[in-house]
Amino acid sequence: MFIKENRENNLKIMALGGFVSVTQNLFVYEYQNDILIVDCGIGFKEERGKEGLIIPDFSYLLQNRKKIRGIVFTHGHQDHIGALPFLLPKLQGKIPLFAPRLTAALIEDKLKEGNLQADINLIDSKTKLNLGSFSVEFIFISHAIPDTFHFLIKTPCGVVYHGSDFKFDWTPVLKRQSEVGKIALAGYRGIDLLFSDCLGSERKGYTPSESTLESSLEREIRECKGRFFITTISSNISRWQQTLDIIARFHRKVVLVGRSVEKIFNIAQELGYLKVPKDLIIPIKKASSFKPRQLAFLIAGCQAQKGSALDKIVSGKSQIKIKPRDKVVFSADFIPGNEAAIRRMVDKLSLLGADVSYSDILDDLHVSGHGSQGDLSLLINLTRAKYLLPFGGEFRHMKQYSILAQKMGYEADKILLPKENQVIEMSFPGKVRLGQKINLQPKFIS
Prior knowledge:
Rossmann fold, eight-stranded mixed sheet, alpha/beta, Metallo-beta-lactamase, Chain A, globular, 22 strands, 2 domains
């Protein structure tokens, strides 16, 4: 006898920022009358000559606000937390927030900017949450910012491993190792669907450790005959730690330039993630009393953001003026969409007389926080999931992940490649498929 499936009893998973997106991470897990939200991030876009932010489409959440049982955050990057100040006021009620310690501090700081408040519950590797139909466990993983976690989400329809941004760093600068044994145990017990970061799926091998950058950064500062400037993603605390240690060895003083850099230094020092040698950092007003070879500037604006500290320097709106013999090091990847703006900034810095080091001419100034094919295949092997779903990249990254998984023995129909606005459905016991499409209209804010 044919029994029609009751799709109301299926788990639905939606990406309100779109599946084919590197940024705007906002995922909705819905089972009957319960919704669990994972992350709430912004994107970056240039539209009609204007640079601005993209926030996910909140319409579905606003229509179903009474179902929301909580928002859980994987880590503190802006593409995972930055849209929260836009969402919370619209929800008109207290929604429980759950975040690791550093992420919670960054969220609190972000909310203060909009005069918003929220009670954030701290989570760590030992935390187990029960939120309506969902139970969530947390697994520490390496990434470009401390306190990054993967989630093991148990639902009435099956088990999902939510594996956001990660790599396996075996010699981490901040010394904490990924909880590989915990991942393997979860895989042994059974995982139905692996959501996996796929941004590095085009690269062979393993993504190098953060610690491998030390010799490159040391070379750059050794060769610098004037003032030394370095820019990276402001929240890359391990990169800043390496830079501080190297600068101290070369007997230079450090000036912090840019609000985002100053904020992350204050928060990371207060929480013990950043160790700053005594008397190394000086205020900008004292910089003039030191010779050029005695100074190093840690500066915000590696993505050429309008209004950033580095943008103000190249546009002549800063008290800091670039001079010949100065060196500027970009120790960061180009975020998709920012390439043209960054190259324009490199042009301007070069015209001002700086010696600029960047990824187009040197390939050892940055290591990604995202795993390459070796890292991705290791997570696949550890989790042993029945189904795979790559995310956190553009479609070409998802496709390369699929090719990798098929080489490992997965059948193509076990690897889900959703369109940007497609819903994922899981029915008991752990059967996964692509579902209907939903209307998504992300909002541009200039």
